[in-house]
Amino acid sequence: MSRPPAFSYVTISSTDAPRLVDFYRELTGSDVGFQQGAYTVLDNGRPGAKLAFQSVDAGQPAVAVHVDVGVDDIDEVGRQIVAMGGRLGEKYDEVGSVWQQAFDPDGNVFCLIARQPEPPAS
């Protein structure tokens, strides 16, 4: 049985993402938990959604802030989104993650991120 979708990240896009990473690291006392390519994630060591940053080029279309939702099956949840009146965007496989843009009925963008399987119970 699949786990229900859950908030994974709140992602801030910026043409100067390192400046924002430093700002929020100092504000929250968090450490950089992941950094690869255009993406950096702060980790405060507590469960729950993490604050992430996406570097974008000047003039590149970007949403200033969006929510990333972790899911077990992107295609299954994508069908559910469409059935509920949303729509799907492009699917990506980069920096070790598979993710897909999605839009709620008002057109607000969010992303579905494939979660890693849970380890078997011991």
DSSP strand content = 35-45%
Could you describe the largest sheet, including whether it forms a barrel? 8 strands, mixed
Arithmetic mean of pLDDT: 90
- Please report the first level of CATH classification, the CATH class: Alpha Beta
Tell me the number of structural domains. 1
Overall geometry: globular
Count the beta strands.
8
Number of helices: 2
Rg estimate, integer Å: 15 Å
For the largest sheet, list the strands in their spatial order: 2-3-4-1-5-8-7-6
Q: Could you list the spans in which at least 5 consecutive residues all have pLDDT below 50?
A: none
End-to-end separation: 18 Å
The CATH topology annotation reads as 2,3-Dihydroxybiphenyl 1,2-Dioxygenase, domain 1
Proportion of residues in helical segments: 10-25%
Gross CATH architecture? Roll
Give me the strand/helix succession.
Answer: EHEEEEHEEE
Structural category is: alpha+beta
Assigned CATH superfamily = 2,3-Dihydroxybiphenyl 1,2-Dioxygenase, domain 1
